[in-house]
Every structure is written in C-alpha cells, then in structure tokens.
Amino acid sequence: MNADREQLAALAARLAPEPDPAPANGDVWAEIIARTSDPRLRALYVERRAQGIARYGVPLQRSNGRSHIVDALQEAVDLVAYCTAADLPGLAGYAEAMVRCLISLAEVEASADSRLLRG
Q1: Residue 64, exposed/middle/buried by CB under 10 A (0-12, 13-18, 19+)?
Q2: Count: domains in the chain
Q3: Dihedral in degrees, nearest 10, Cα atoms 42, 43, 44, 46
Q4: What pTM, to 2 d.p., does this model score?
Q5: 25 secondary structure, DSSP code
Q6: One domain for residues 101 and 119
Q7: How many other C-beta atoms lie within 10 A of the C-beta of residue 66?
Q8: DSSP summary character for residue 30
Q9: How many Cβ atoms sit within 10 Å of the Cβ of residue 59?
Q10: What gap in Å lies between CA 119 and CA 83, rounded to an integer?
C-alpha cells in the first residue's frame, strides 16, 4: 500500500510544471515542418512553432533544460480529457494508451536521473 502511494506521488510530481526552456541549439519544429508534405499539417506546425516562439522566445529545442517526456505526458493527459469532452471515446482510448507509454518512459527517465544524482 505504501509503495502505491509513493508511485502515485511520483506520477503527480511528473505533472508539475516544467521550467522555462533554456536557449539551446536547433529547431525541432523546423525539422518537423521540413519533413511534412501534408499542407494542412504543415500550416498547423508553422503556427504552433510561431506560438512557441511568441511564448518562450525560442523555438522548441532539444537539451533545453526541460524533460520532453514530461511535456509529452502532460499534453497526452490533457488529450484524454479533450477527447472525452468532445465525445470521442475511441480517440480517448488511444490517448490513454499514449499516457501509459509515456508514464513508463517518465519512470525510466526519473530512475536514470536518480542514478546520475547518486553518482
């Protein structure tokens, strides 16, 4: 029972807001836009990139001080709620599967971070 509480607390901690990104190198959205041939997706990606730059001052970059796995987990959790609110149970189910995968990845990341901190 205590282990269950610890696991729930660890999951809840993964939903805490990430720090603002630190400037790094590259532009993940530019990579995605460059490989996208569907004009509808390209337009969405271009707009989302612009929104990120307006909010954070930089495009999405790797190694920017944030856990991209935690960011993805938080977005996927919201996706479950959005799909449910829109009465799209099938998509909500796919989103829940994504959440489960991301939880596993977040746990692996947290375990690796813990080992690095201990030396």
Answers
A1: buried
A2: 2
A3: 80
A4: 0.84
A5: S
A6: yes
A7: 19
A8: H
A9: 18
A10: 42
DSSP code of 67? Answer: -
Q: What angle do CA 59, 67, 32 make, to 5 degrees?
A: 40
**Helix (H), strand (E) at residue 38:** none
pLDDT in tens, the chain (119 residues): 577 788 777 777 878 888 999 999 999 999 999 999 999 999 999 999 999 999 999 999 999 999 999 999 999 999 999 999 999 999 999 999 999 999 999 888 888 876 666 65
Q: Tokens in use for 32?
A: 């995605």
Residue 104 lies in a domain: yes
pLDDT at res. 99: 96
Q: In terms of residues, how long is the chain?
A: 119
Which stretches of 1-88 are DSSP H helices?
Answer: 2-14, 28-35, 39-56, 68-85
| Domain span including residue 80 | 67-119
